[in-house]
Amino acid sequence: MEFRHLGHSGLKISEITYGNWITHGGQVEADAATACVRAALDAGITTFDTADVYAEGRAETVLGQALAGERRSGIEIFSKVYWPTGPGVNDRGLSRKHIMESIDGSLQRLGTDYLDLYQAHRYDYETPLEETMLAFADVVRSGKALYIGVSEWRAEEIRAGKELADEMGFPLVSNQPQYSALHRVIEAEVIPTSRELGISQIVFSPIAQGILTGKYLPGQPAPAGSRATDEKGGGANFIARWAGDDDVLTRVQELKPIAEDLGLSMAALAVAWVLTEENVAAAIIGASRPEQVVDNVEAAGVTLDADVKARIDEVLAPVAATDPALTVSPPKRP
């Protein structure tokens, strides 16, 4: 396993990070989830990402139980705040009230005294940014989180947040966007701005919800038990835009010879592609089975030559998303 600095901070995280969005507490039962976490630890992964909203809090609970007994200083635990966690009007967003209540809930479910990174899950257009950042400053000063990050923020939002964080004296070090060889919307604006500001990307969906594994074939039903068939956990909704596009699926199949030439699985090739971007500190992988963790971790330490990356880009360019406007947060509610 290789480790990278998170932004300009002194914190190093495993370049492959284990995340439990959709899986833990939903698609995967607790025993299987624990087996996946153990596989991640055995593979050298030290960084684990979750959120208070995943499976209505169950994902944090399952992760906390799976990590129980690990040396706390030897691992990094990340969580997030923004999405609704209850029926009340203040049970969502980035108000001071919701942040302060949510951090306590996350710590309790995870069974830890602090988070290594606490992230704003989206930008909140209903709350003054100053209020949000002051609350995060107090979270850091109280020792409940060591660093602060954001997720799916636009370049101008990241810049405004970083200016306030610097004024208030706390470390805003990361952004967590979707990024893969099929979803490249952060390249035009977010990555250049982040480089300038000393902020890293911790990217989710590096294998495009499983599409880049090559297991989804054009003109054929999705494999049984795959994310595209997960109606209960919501996985089918997230993957639908690619799984139903035969042009995308056909082009992904063209990557198989590239992966074979490198001795990598398709999944590992996709993760390695993401990690060629120097502004990416880590790629978040998820798994429903331990062997998927082992497969994805093949990407650790792999360096793709420029010509290999160019071949991948050439294949996928006609179907890859690149518009920066696709990075959006929910608007103000009516």
Q: Gist?
A:
This protein has helices spanning 30-42, 58-67, 96-110, 129-141, 155-168, 190-197, 235-243, 246-253, 256-262, 266-275, 290-296, 306-316; strands at residues 3-5, 12-14, 16-19, 47-49, 76-81, 115-120, 145-150, 172-175, 200-203, 280-285.
CATH topology: TIM Barrel
Strand residues, percent:
5-15%
Number of strands: 10
Largest sheet: 8 strands, parallel, barrel
Structural class, by secondary structure, is: alpha/beta
Q: Please estimate the helix content.
A: 25-40%
What's the CATH superfamily, by name? NADP-dependent oxidoreductase domain
With strands numbered from the N-terminus, the spatial order across the biggest sheet is: 3-4-5-6-7-8-9-10
When the domains are counted, the total is 1
Named at the architecture level, the CATH assignment is Alpha-Beta Barrel
Uncertain ranges: none
The protein's oligomeric status is single chain
What is the average per-residue confidence, as pLDDT, rounded to a whole number?
92
Estimated radius of gyration: 19 Å
Structural shape = globular
Q: From N to C, what is the helix and strand string?
A: EEEHEHEHEHEHEHEHHHHEHH
Q: Regarding CATH, which class?
A: Alpha Beta
C-alpha termini separation? 47 Å
Textual characterization of the structure:
Pfam families: Aldo_ket_red. Residues 15-316 form the NADP-dependent oxidoreductase domain. The protein is α/β, with parallel strands linked by helices and 334 residues long. The protein has a single domain (3-319), classed as NADP-dependent oxidoreductase domain (TIM Barrel, Alpha-Beta Barrel), CATH 3.20.20. The chain contains 12 helices and 10 strands. It has helices spanning 30-42, 58-67, 96-110, 129-141, 155-168, 190-197, 235-243, 246-253, 256-262, 266-275, 290-296, 306-316, and strands at residues 3-5, 12-14, 16-19, 47-49, 76-81, 115-120, 145-150, 172-175, 200-203, 280-285. Strand 5 (76-81), helix 3 (96-110) and strand 6 (115-120) form a beta-alpha-beta unit. Helix 4 (129-141) packs across helix 5. It is globular and about 50 Å long. It starts with a strand and ends in an 18-residue tail after the last helix. The model has no long low-confidence stretch (mean pLDDT 92).
